[in-house]
Every structure is written in structure tokens, then in C-alpha cells.
Amino acid sequence: MTLQQLKYVICVADKGSISEAAKSLFISQPSLSNAIKELELEIKTTIFTRTNKGIRMSPEGAEFLGYARQVIQQSELLEEKYLNSPRTKQRFSISTHHYLFAANAFVELIQEFGGEEYEFTFRETTTYEVIQDVKNLKSELGIIYLSEFNESVIRKLLKESNLVFSELFTASPHIFIYKQHPLASRHSVTLEELDEYPCLNFEQGEHNSFYFSEEILSTRSVKKSIKVSDRAAVVNMLIGVNGYTISTGVFPEYLHGEDIISVRLDVDELIHVGTIMHKDVTLTYLGELYLDALKRIAEELKEKST
């Protein structure tokens, strides 16, 4: 196995085509195909499956790709530091629930990194996809929550996926509502007081289990329910139909200026927010920077709550 072969795999995965990758690498298509086949034979793993419509990455190949990216990134950092090689485009990806503090930490990462060339990916997605992204090393880190209700199921899935959960902070449930909502002046609200208002939840796609819900109290029956897929839609619904969504109450000002506020939800529940990462993978330099930013935010939250 060589660094060149790893670069070939990464290029094919990025281009989605052996022919396009060959053009980008300035080699012949047969040469590239043979190099990948030799690698697959050596590691006894099928990285790409060939079909009449082209190639597709196998689940094992997706995991291998994650490791390959790690190795190549570290190799490029060594070359830059010790061989004075030109700076290469850095790549970094995280997957997360729709958490505002996660986006804020991502901004801090970009500001601190300050490179001339980079390709960063910030994926706000479903619980299942967050776990799958980190499992297959599509993302270095994932951000999810555990509660008394979902913890046993999620931890079982994490263990099966060779992932570990590390808590960042614990929060009491809050609701996000429009500043002119009828309940906006309250210090806390009960579930019964929310009965007449639309409840907003992030949809979870085909893996729509109560345990995968991004919001706690997922088994609760409500009169009015609205499923959304992005944060902008949440804001529009909060303002337009006096809806509410249950979350941590962290950084509501980032939602829509001062239009959205948080009010404590009077329930006996806790939200344990944390990161997930692959058990056998060491974070890259960019991963460490991002984790540091998350931890700084967590410390600020602890200080505000005391």
C-alpha cells in the first residue's frame, strides 16, 4: 500500500468516476483502474463496486476512505513542515444536530485556521446520518445528545459502530418561541400550556424512530405537529404560526437576531450534549481545533449557569 494509491482512491471518490479521476491525475484510465484493483487485492477489501452505471463506494470502502484521508492529510502536513512543500488545500468535515453552538464553533475554526485554501463541510443532518458519517469517517466528529429515554438505544448503536460519546455539557430543556408569542413573558412553561401551539420537530427521514428524534419528549402526543428539515424553516414557523421547538436554550440570539427567545420548559428531564468520534481514529489538527472551540463554548455555558 502506497501513499499514491491512497491518493488515487480519494480522487476517484471525490470525482465519482474513474475516467474523471484519471483526467484529473493525468494518467490513463486503465492504469488507474489497475492501481485500485491491486490495492483492493492487497487489503482484501472491495473499495468500489462496478456497475453498468459506473462505480459506487462500498460500505467497507467508505470506512477505508476515511482512514486514507487521515493518512494523506498527515503526510501533507509533514511535507509542508519539513520539506517546505506548498500548502495544500485542507479538508475537514463534521456532522451535527441542528445546534447553533456547533455552527458558532465552526466559525471559530475557520477564523483560527486562516488558511488560503480549504474545503470544510458542516453537515446539519439526522441522528442516524450523524452516526453513520462518523462511523464511515465521512466526518471526524459528530454532535448529538443523550437523554434518559434514548441513551440505552443510542449507546448500543454507538458501540456497534465503534464510536465513543464524550459529554460537552448538560442542559435543561427550553423552548424556542417568537418574542411576541403569548407565552414569551413567562419564566417557565408546562407541556400543558403548549397544547394549543404547533410543535416543530426536525424530520429524521426513513430512520424516524422516537429514539432518533432530535428533540426530547418525542413520544408525547401533540395536537399540532410540523416536521421541518432545516433551521431557516424553524425560524419562519416560530414567527409565522406561533410555533415552538424544544431544545437546549443555548444561543437563541443566533437564530434570528433578538426575535427568538428561549423559555425554560418545566419538565424533569436533562439533555446531555456531546461529541462522537471513531474509537480507533486520532483527530487531525483541524479536528483538535474544532473540539477546542466546542469545549470553550461548553465552559462558557457552565459559567453562565452558575
Describe the protein:
The chain is built from ten helices and 13 strands. The strands form four sheets. Strands 4-3-5-13-6 form a five-stranded mixed β-sheet, sandwiched between helices. A four-stranded mixed β-sheet has the order 8-12-7-11. The protein has a two-stranded antiparallel ribbon with strand order 1-2. The chain is α/β, with parallel strands linked by helices and 306 residues long. The model has no long low-confidence stretch (mean pLDDT 86). A hairpin with a 2-residue loop joins strand 1 and strand 2 (54-57). It has helices spanning 3-15, 18-25, 29-43, 59-82, 100-113, 127-135, 151-160, 231-240, 253-256, 285-305; strands at residues 48-51, 54-57, 90-96, 118-124, 141-146, 163-171, 174-178, 188-189, 199-202, 225-228, 245-247, 260-265, 271-278.
Tag the structure with descriptive keywords:
3 domains; four-stranded mixed β-sheet; 306 residues; 13 strands; five-stranded mixed β-sheet; single chain; D-Maltodextrin-Binding Protein, domain 2; alpha/beta; 42% helix; 23% strand; Arc Repressor Mutant, subunit A; 10 helices
Blueprint of the fold:
Blueprint: H1 3-15, H2 18-25, H3 29-43, E1 48-51, E2 54-57, H4 59-82, E3 90-96, H5 100-113, E4 118-124, H6 127-135, E5 141-146, H7 151-160, E6 163-171, E7 174-178, E8 188-189, E9 199-202, E10 225-228, H8 231-240, E11 245-247, H9 253-256, E12 260-265, E13 271-278, H10 285-305
Parallel strand pairs: 3-4, 3-5, 8-12, 9-10
Antiparallel strand pairs: 1-2, 5-13, 6-13, 7-11, 7-12
Helix pairs in contact: 1-2, 1-4, 2-3, 5-10
